[in-house]
Amino acid sequence: MAATREYGAAFFVTPQRAEHIFTPEDFTNEHKMIAKTTSDFVQGDIAPVADQLEHQDWDLTVKLLHKAGDLGLLAVDVPEAYDGLGLDKVTSSLITEYMTRGGSFALSYGAHVGIGSLPIVYFGNEEQKKRYLPDLASGRKLAAYALTEPGSGSDALGARTVAKLSEDGKHYILNGTKQYITNSAFADVFVVYAKIDGEQFSAFIVERDFKGVSTGPEEKKMGIKASSTRPLILEDVHVPVENLLGETGKGHVIAFNILNIGRYKLAVGCVGGIKAALETAVKYAKTREQFKRPIASFPLIQGKIADMATRGFITESIAYRTTGGIDAALSEQDLSGADSGRKAAKAIEEFAIECSINKVFASESLDFTVDEGLQIYGGAGFIQDYPIERMYRDSRINRIFEGTNEINRMIIPGTLMKKAFKGEVALLQAAQGLQEELMGIIEQSDESATLGVEHHAVEMTRKIFLFVGGLAVQMYGQKLDREQEILSNLADISIALYAMETAVLRADKTAKSGRLVSSEIQADYVRLFVAETFPEVERIAKDTLAAMQDSDTLKTSLTVLRKLTRSVPANTVELKRRIAGRIIEAEQYLA
Q: How far is CA 580 from CA 127, 188, 529, in A?
C-alpha cells in the first residue's frame, strides 16, 4: 500500500512527495484564527509593556500569562479530558511563532506550555494528569523544567541531583542544584530530574511549596531579560512517591523526547523572530537616507534584505514540514490509554533527526538575520532605543538552548546510524545501490523544466550524502562516533538536503495550487537558496573526503564527486534584486 504521509528520516534515501508534506499554505481557518488571537494579544497586551517586562517585573509576567490562559493559549497541547483544548501541533506552533513578537516574554510562555507541561501531558499517570493539567491549562499554576546542572551542561545524564527513598517509603528525598531554569522566579510546578540512589535517572513533579525548595538570584543575562532565569535549589525536599513521573530509571525517555519538541518549537519561534527582524530592517531602510537616497534603494542593502527573506522562507518551510510530520505520526496513535506517553514518545522520536536539523538551521538563520538587520541600521542598531538591538542580544541563546548546535550536529548522523542498524531507514541499502549507479552516467538536470536545476541539486545532494557517508562508515565503522569533524560535516550536508528539498517541494505545491504571486517569489527563494547552498555542499564533501583519504584514493573520489556536482551558476544578483523589490514594497515577509 502506498504511503499516505512522510516518515521520519525517509528523505535521506527517497525523494519525498509534495502532497505528503505540510506547508504554511495548508493552514486552516481555525489555524489562522488562533494566530490572529495570539497576534492581537501580543500587540494589545505585551508590546505596550515591553520595557517593563525587560526590567523583570515578574508580577506583570504572571498577570500576562494568566491573561493568555483566559484566552485559551495555554491549553492547546493539553487534552480536553483535563480542561485543555487538545489541538494539533501546528496550532501550538503558530502560537509560538506569533508570541515571539512579544520579545523574550515568549520564553516564559514557551517554557510553561512546552517543556514545563508536556512531560505531564505525555508521561503523567491518570492521577497526575487530573491533579496538575487543569491548573496548567488555565494558568492557575505555572510550570518550569529543571534538567540542566552546573557541572553537566549538555551531558544531561551526568546529573548529580540525587533522590533517596525515605525510610517509610512514602517520599523521595531530593538534594541538588539545577541551573539556568526558565520561569524559576514564579513557577509553581517544576519537572525535576534526579538520580535515584545516584544511579537511576528519573523525573519528578516538584511543587514550589514543598519544604526545602528555593531559588537563587536572577542571572544577569546578555539577552532574553524578560524571562526569569535562576538556579533551583533542592535541600532535603520530600517529594511524595506518587510524584515520580514515568518509570524509575527512564527519565531519559522523557527528557530526550521533550527536548525533541523543544527543538522544533525553537525553530518555529525563530521563524517569528526572522520575520520581525526583516520587517523592522526594511522599514528603517526605506526611511533612512544617505546621499539623498533611501538606503533601501542601494543594491547591497537589497541583497541583505533578499538573504534575510530567503532564510525566513526556508526556516518557515522546514519548521512547519516537521510540525506537520509529527502531527501526522501522532494522529495514528491512540493517546487516550495508559500507555499514551510511550506511543506519543515513539511518534515524536520518529522525527528526532528533523527536530535537530530544525534547531540548528533556524537558530543560525535567526542569528544571520538579526546580524544583517543590525548592519542595515548601522550605528543606530547599536543603540537600545531601536528594536534590532534587543533582537540581536536575544537571538544568541538559541544556538545554546535545547542542546548546543554542536551537540545537535552529533545527534543527526548518530541517530541516523541507529535507525539504519534497526532497519527503520534503508540507508545501507541505498548507499550500496549508489555504488553501482556511480559506475554509469549521471543524468544531468532538465534546465527547461520549472525548478529543474533545483530538483536535480536536491537529488545530487542526497547522493553526495550517501556517497560520503558510506565511505565514512566503511573507513571508521563503530569508531565513527570519535570523528566529530566528519560527523559535523555529514550533519551539514543533511541540513542542506532537508532544507533544499523542503523548499523545492513547497514551491512545487504552491505552483500547482495556482497562486501566481506566491509561486513566483517562492521559486525565486528556492533558486537563490539552492544556488548558494549546493556549492557549499560540494565544498563540505571535498573537505570530508580529504580528511578521510590519502592522495591516490582521494583523486578517485573527487572524480566521482565532480559527476555529482556539475551545475550552471544562477544569476543571484538578479534574483536578489527581484526578491528585495517585492519585500521592500510590502514592508514585510512574503511567501
A: 55, 47, 14
Nearest to 112 by CA among 135, 89, 87: 135
CA distance 153 to 407: 11
Helix (H) or strand (E) holding 198: none
Instruction: Tell me the three cell numbers of residue 271.
Output: 521563524
Q: How many CA atoms lie within 13 A of 144 on its CB side?
A: 28
CB atoms within 10 A of CB 89: 25
Strands 289-290 and 244-245: unpaired
pLDDT tens profile 185-226: 999 999 999 999 999 999 999 999 999 999 999 999 999 999
Alpha-carbon distance of 407 to 418, in angstroms, equals 16
pTM of the model: 0.96
Amino acid at 179: Q
- How far apart are the C-alpha atoms of 490 and 484, rounded to whole Å? 10
- Contacts within 8 Å (CB) and 24+ apart, 543-552: 543/489, 544/468, 544/472, 544/486, 544/489, 544/490, 545/468, 545/471, 547/485, 547/486, 548/471, 548/472, 548/475, 548/486, 549/471
- pLDDT tens digits for range 219-234: 999 999 999 999 999 9
Torsion angles phi and psi, residue 288, rounded to 5:
-80, 120
The Cα–Cα gap between 167 and 149 comes to 27
Q: At 181, phi and psi to the nearest 5? A: -90, 110
**All 3 cell numbers of residue 499?**
532544507
Q: Are residues 306 and 444 in the same domain?
A: yes
The CATH number assigned to the domain holding 375 equals 1.20.140.10
Query: Can you tell me which residue has the cell 517520599?
Result: 171
Within this chain, do residues 219 and 315 fall inside the same structural domain, yes or no?
no
CB 500 within 8 A of CB 357: no
Instruction: Look up the domain containing 26 and give its range.
Output: 18-142
> Among 221, 245, 269, which residue terminates a domain?
245
Active site residue 402: yes
DSSP for 270-311?
HHHHHHHHHHHHHHHHHH-EETTEEGGGSHHHHHHHHHHHHH
Which residue is catalytic, options 364, 402, 454, 538? 402
Other Cβ atoms closer than 10 A to 513: 12
Query: In angstroms, rounded to a whole number, what is the distance separating the alpha carbons of residues 105 and 182?
Result: 11
Which CATH number covers residue 227? 2.40.110.10
- What is the number of other CB atoms lying within 10 angstroms of the CB of residue 4? 9
- Amino acid occupying residue 41: F
Q: What is the spatial distance between Cα 366 and Cα 372, in angstroms, rounded to a whole number? A: 10
What residues form DSSP beta bridges with 239? Answer: 172
